[in-house]
Design a protein that fits this description.
By secondary structure, the protein is mainly α. It has two domains: 245 residues, Cyclin A, domain 1 (Orthogonal Bundle); 112 residues, Cyclin-like (Cyclin A, domain 1). Helices cover 41% and strands 0% of the residues. It has 14 helices and no strands. The longest helix has 17 residues. It starts with 46 loop residues before the first helix and ends in a 21-residue tail after the last helix.
Length: 411
Amino acid sequence: MLIMMNFSTNSHRHSPTHKENIPPPTKADAFQHQRTKQRTVLGVLSENEQCGRSLSQGSQFSKHSSVSDSSQLNFFGCPSSSSYEVYVEEACEVVLGASGQEVVSDSYDLTADAYPLQNEHLDVLMEFSSSSCQDASMQFEPDEPLMSVETFCFDYAEDIYKNLRESEKKFRARPAYLEKHPEITNAMRVVLVDWLVEVVQEYKLGSETLHLAVNYLDRFLSCTTFIKRNKLQLVGTVALLVAAKYEEIFPPELNEFVYITDCTYSKKQLLRMESVLLKMLDFKMAAPTTNQFLRLFISVHPICSTTKNLALYIAELSLLESDPFLQYTPSILAAGAYCLAAYTINKSYWPDSLVVFTGYTMEEIMPCLTYLHKLYISAETRPQQAVRAKYKTSKYCHVSGITAPTALPFP
């Protein structure tokens, strides 16, 4: 079953605006507005609700999605029988081992230049639920974004693509990282990401902010072990907080992030978790995303608005599932989303111009494309509907209502 709350959009509350809009007014008054509907928060679901959701939210893509085991019915905010404590693997991804050598997989290069965590950060990781530690808010100067779609210059497309391809290998999460978190299932992650989509919609944040937040979430969980189920939402909330600071001109204030969790977490907990997350990611925030690659491909080979929005919809759906999509690089996922959208709308595939530009052939894209097609077909019947609801609007040409092709004929 799953953690999450159904995040209820409050029409009476002011929402911060994204880049294109004017700066938001002071939120002190808006924060006090009466809610029209009580949120269902992590940890307050009844046992019957938990059991019901657990039976309906299995994932066809991951062995972690199975929640029939009764030991998995208690999570996020519920008492756990597990005696696990949160800690960092000192001989693995984050910290140097006793031999002085860092053990990192060549395929993912998660923390190639990471330096050991100080005691204060280890303490925070080991006692997320404690309120005795001092605030540990870290101020930092964000890196320059790898690519700005709004100021994209075609003359630099090849250089931008080369840089993104080189960078994406350094900013990948490990596909099987959930094996290191016994209290967290893939189904929990699905509900968390679905909730993040709703929050992004309510606060009118950009799609790139969402993609970055999910990247930060997955990379953080790749670098840690035994994260408790009642802290997964805290990690997800802070991942979105940091992504908004990095990507948005007017990010929501800290009070807003306390509010969206129905005060489940305090400012102090958010700030302390922010410090830990930044440290664990080595302050490397300029992660290439599927969204960046997809918009770059569209700039190189333009497509109609319907096809473009359908590709963005498919790319966003892929954020829900860690298995199998974490095994693919963002550039391959973007190519797969582009191909699937183009075939659905125009019965075309991967144009020759993008074969030349990317170096990817249809044979290389097809395995990922097949998984994306299965996900697209199942989207309508999944319990999590936030992405579909978002792309049902006229802003996105109602593309989530377009019927997926029943089959994909091989080229």
